[in-house]
Amino acid sequence: YSKGSIVRIKLKDFMTYTFVELRPGPSLNVVVGTNGSGKSSLVCAICLGLCGTPQMVGRASHVGDYIRNGAESALIEIELHNPNARNYVIERHIFPSKSAWKLNNIPVPQKAVEAAVAGLHIQVGNLCQFLPQDRVADFVKMSRQELLEGTEKAVGTRDGHLLHARLIQLQHRQAQLESGVQGQRERLDQERQKNAHLDEEVRKLQEHRDIRSRLDILRQKLAWLDYDSTRQAYEAEKNKLREEERTLKARLEEQDPLKQQLAKMAAHEEGLRRVDKSLKAEAAATLKKVENSLQKLAELSEQGGAVKRELERKIKDEATRRERISKCKADIEGFEKELGEAAAESIESKLQEVQSEMQRCNQTMNTISRARQMADVFFRERQRQSAALEEEMRRLKDQSNQRMEMLRRRSKDAFSATQWLLKNEGLFAGKIYPPIMTQVEVPDQRDAKYVEAQIPFRDMMAFVAEQPEDLSKFLGLVRDGQGLRINGVLVPAEPLDAFQPRLPLAQIGPLGFRGYIQSMLRAPDAVMRYLCKQYRVHDVPAGDERVESHLSQIKALGIRRFFTHNQVYTVKTSRYDSSRSSTMTTEIMQPSLLTVSVDLSSLNHLEQSRQALCEEMASKSAEIKELTVQERAASSKLEECRTAKKGLMAEAGRQKQLGLLLDQKRQALQSLQRQCLDLDRERAEAAKKQGSLCRTKMAQVAIYVKRLQACYESHRLCVDHRLEMVKVAADRKKLEDALQVALEAHQALENEVRARRESVLAAKREAQRKLRHAQEAIGCSTNISQIPPSVAREFLQLPKSVAEITQQVHAEEAKLSCMLPVDSAVEQEYHRRQQNITQLEGDLGSNEAQLAEVAEEMADISGRWLPDLERLLERINQGFQRFFQALGCAGQVSLYRGEKAHEYDQYGVNIRVKFRDNERLTELSAAHQSGGERSVATVVYMMALQELTSVPFRCVDEINQGMDSENERRIFEMIMNTALQNSAQYFLLTPKLLPDLPYAENVTMIFITKSENYIPDWKPESLVGRAVGLAALARRRQ
């Protein structure tokens, strides 16, 4: 082992591995395994375990995605060889959101592991050393520059890569400096030209300032004169305010007499209101007495009316009594006459005849009822038997429904198409069968796994048509018209008898076979013909565990495909050499579509039995209907007898009722005759009551008159008092009006005083504002209200009146307006640009010096780096050409220098290849070469690199994809010879091995196969000479 090579790899819960530990050899390690067995998972583990990133692998984007499904974390442990001391052991514990690292069983940060890996010259990110399966295409897509960088890192010296990086850095710095120097020179010229045009502008600016200074002093004196005028106006307003306040005080004193008179008037009105309240109470009392007298008179009138109404009621009652006596006598005569006409003897004899007829009808109905009961018992028994048959049929049909439900879950489009087909079968000339999974029956559920393993899922969901026209029409209506994704197949023309097994079952039975797939299923003839034609179910046998012990005999019989207990074997013969064959073994999956079986023969037998029961029930039902008609006729006759009996009994009852009514009428007549009234005596009593009521009413009328007079007098006094109150209220209103006039006059004057105060306050504020303005104009303190002496002396030299000062201000402003506008920023711009000119001159000198230093350093570094690089690429080119010549092709590796000189960031490796004699050398790219040719070039380039440097290990995952067998054989021999000559460890991953390949003694073969359980104690010698030994060992452990 060389330093840094991989001694041991252990994985736990990583991708497809629950647990695995392997120890690769020190030289070439050939890792062989079928697709999906976990070869690339091993490459991912090496990359991620040595500080690689998921992007380097080219698979999942997050490291947590590499944890096996169902596990909480994953472990990668890699042991690297250290010849001088203890081996390096790197552990990476992967969690969903983070990773934990250990180096020699000591927790360390990832940076420490990265430093240790880099110290061993391991570059998992360099495609020239580590090429995963998903990054093979990336290697070909690498640009010339990327390929050069990877080559320098892989086989160049560390100084060479650093010098190249420094050259690129200096190149960019040189470009920046050249651009900066050019820009600085242009800006310096521009600044100098601009300042040359500003000299005249600066002179005009000074003249403008002198005029502005004279205008400022004139405006200062004008501000003080304005303030003095405003102050005098303020004093005048303040004097007017004092005069108006004295007048307001005098008006307020004039209101006192009027207020005193109003107070006296209010006290007098209060006394009048108290008297008015007393008079109102007295008038209300007298009115209440008058109302009481009126109420008593009304009550007496009501009593007289009641006496009169009572007399009239008694007279009316007497007349009614006499009418009822007459009617009662008439009713008695009628009842006596009707009782005399009836004959009781005839009614009794008729009743006896009717009862005899009723007895005969009851006997007939009993006979019919017994016969019907027997028929009903027979019919119900047949109904029970029919219900049992229907329940059994429903149970069998429910299994068919389960098969349809499974179809709906697995393919909603196929289920929808089946429902449509069942409703529209009449549209087609021939028969179209629903999906095959609904038509195939497996009597023994243990055989369902063989049937499903032989018939693909796609055809299990296919519809089977007997005629091609029906198939085209059906697919057009369902797939094109409804957008359902379904598949349809056509029944072959051969009859079912044409499909016979090549070997009879009797010949292969002793080898462990118990039948062909056709014998393990039942289906309509059309469906069975398609399965025989397409999938040869008539010629594929299935057996038990004994088959595995007779594999050589089975192959000798030429059986291409057969099933054991849990495995399916497929034998393929080479198209080029019939003596060579390969056997592929696959574990049989548990059935998922044919787990529900429907017994169609039992269903048909049950249907026939149900039809026989229905016929018996129909015959017995007709008999029951006839008995029902007879029973209904006897019942109708019995009802007629009952009606006649009821009429006769009603007539007898009516005779008895008439006798009772006659007795009641006689008693009522006697009671009415005893209730006779004396109307003359009643009239005399009523007249006596009326006289007494009349006398009482006269006395009450006299009392009413006296009370009415007293009420009138009290109301008259109340009205007179009210008139006096109205007169007093009128006098009070006059006083209030006079006081209101005085108050309004006072309010108007008070408003004037308030307005005057506001005017005085405004004048004061204006004077203060102008004072501040004047103070600000001369720049003195706000505490000074007089002009400072120095300013006063300047003011003495100016005109004294406002008009003269204003005239002089206009004159100076006119001068200023005649001058062109001058921006005060021009002078600032002039001085600022002068400073910029000085700064630019210094910066330009400094950058020109730096540019010379960069050019000198680039020439020095290029002289050291470029010759070494050219020699390195020449050595790589020699090895590349030698390897390609061994393949019968041509190849060349050269240095690409870019389109311009000294563009070191464009330097790259140019690979040109030629695979055919009639071609010329072309650049390696996807546009010119096939995938297999690019793979050959990639491997050859990597082997050319190996001759020039020593790295701990190299890894290439399935680089032989797309190669033909001849190139694959040559590439493998090259890799093995290179690995023998070089001390580096090599990992070559491939899904298959070509036959008769030569192997050196130091080649380590690592086989990867699937197993559900870990095998801790397996023996490698048990695999020698057995093509399926590893699979058999895995089954024994299970």
Quick recap:
With 1038 residues, this protein is α+β, with helices and mostly antiparallel strands. The model is unreliable at 1023-1038 (pLDDT under 50).
Q: What does this entry look like structurally?
A:
This is Structural maintenance of chromosomes protein 5. Belongs to the SMC family. SMC5 subfamily. The two termini are 37 Å apart. Helix 7 packs across helix 19 and helix 9 runs antiparallel to helix 18. The protein has a 6-stranded antiparallel beta sheet with strand order 2-1-4-5-6-7. A 5-stranded parallel beta sheet has the order 8-20-21-3-22. The chain has 25 helices and 22 strands. A hairpin with a 7-residue loop joins strand 4 and strand 5. The C terminus is likely disordered. It is of the alpha+beta class and 1038 residues long.
Q: How widely separated are the two ends?
A: 37 Å
Across the major sheet, the strand order is: 2-1-4-5-6-7
Q: Which structural class is indicated by helix and strand composition?
A: alpha+beta
Per DSSP E runs of 2 or more residues, the count of β-strands stands at 22
* Overall shape: flat
Name the beta content range: 5-15%
Major β-sheet profile: 6 strands, antiparallel
Discrete helix count? 25
Radius of gyration: 65 Å
- What value does the average pLDDT take? 81
What percent of the residues sit in helical stretches (DSSP H or I)? 55-70%
Q: pLDDT under 50 segments (min length 5)? A: 1023-1038
